[in-house]
Design a protein that fits this description.
Two copies of one chain form a homodimer. By secondary structure, the first copy, chain A, is mainly beta. In chain A, about 10% of the residues lie in helices and about 30% in strands.
């Protein structure tokens, strides 16, 4: 069954066109948003996760600078516009279902991707073997694991 | 303002507790889901992106095997249950807002994380400088970039 959703990127095609085709047919959710993963282009470190609407996605593709949609502020958000920590996108990919984008990027300015002042938003780990029937602790981690 | 959402993981606290605290307070969306990013534990390659409900997240933490919620099938989904490509989670992290989880994992069996039969779901790139006013092409990529 074709997905009838239409955006400025065009209509979504059948499953085979989405999975194997070579035309970008991003899927936006009911709020008009698509998830966006950002890793560091040079190290592969996981940096941040945010959301884009059509306009943010189009601006990111056209300018090479990461734009997002702030769900809390309900506003377009050019990453680093105030802090100077702009996101220079080196590569963008989508997945089999074309319902997420992944960017490899360089963080300009202070190199801090997280609004808490850290290089990465993923600074706490969740111990495996935790039971959700009790409070699950988090453990601080210093940085992302490097590739071997 | 405290987030009133409650799950089996407990209530969400104030912003400071969410961002700096050491208790896991995952945020589920209006559909009861939280996004989940999966990278390869050994290489850092980006593998897949999916969703978890409370039960899937709890099962993943308790068993160390990746469980998700299939939005299309509306069912709990133990990754690899049929294919044998189970997801052995090595580490799980959450981000500053605790509204996404990231797992470093090993794919068992054939080592194929994508249902299309590929190691990774991210096998197509989107050229930067694309304009969303025309069809945006995708370019096949052979594999994830390695760290230097």
């Amino acid at each position: 069954m074709a997905d009838q959703q239409t955006s400025r990127f065009g209509s979504r095609g059948q499953k085979d066109a989405v999975e194997e085709g070579l035309v970008f047919q991003p899927k936006f959710d009911a709020d008009g948003l698509i998830p966006a993963i950002v890793t560091a282009a040079d190290t592969g470190d996981m940096l941040m996760f945010a959301w884009m609407n059509e306009e943010a996605l189009a601006l990111t593709l056209e300018t090479g600078l990461g734009h997002f949609w702030s769900r809390s502020r309900r506003a377009l958000w050019k990453k680093g516009e105030e802090s100077g920590n702009l996101l220079q996108v080196v590569e963008m990919r989508t997945d089999c279902d074309q319902d997420v984008v992944w960017m490899r990027a360089r963080v300009e300015g202070d190199g801090l991707a997280c609004h808490t002042g850290r290089e990465s938003c993923f600074y706490r780990s969740i111990p495996l073997t935790s039971s959700a029937n009790a409070a699950v602790p988090l453990a601080p981690v210093q940085r992302n694991p490097r590739k071997p």
